[in-house]
Design brief:
It is a single chain. The protein is built from three helices and no strands. With about 70 residues, the protein is mostly helical. Helix 1 (about 1-20) runs parallel beside helix 3. The protein is elongated, with a radius of gyration of 12 Å.
């Protein structure tokens, strides 16, 4: 599940860069995806949960910033 979310998030952020031309959301999202990837290799632990939550929050923030550019 988490690996699929990383792939889908990366594709969506790439489309956002192409569509909006803003690198800020891509940078924020890339950090989030990196945290999510790190969570995959930490094993089941509190660190995994913290990394996943932080990563997802950053990816959501990046998507929100891209959505602001739609209007």
């Amino acid at each position: 599940g988490l690996a699929l979310a990383i792939v889908v998030g990366a594709v969506a952020l790439g489309f956002g860069l192409v569509r909006h031309g803003k690198r800020g959301p891509l940078a924020i999202g890339a950090v989030g995806l990196a945290l999510m990837t790190l969570a995959l290799v930490t094993g089941h632990s509190p660190a995994e949960a913290a990394l996943t939550i932080a990563g997802v929050a950053l990816v959501a923030l990046a998507h929100w910033r891209n959505a602001k550019h739609l209007f």
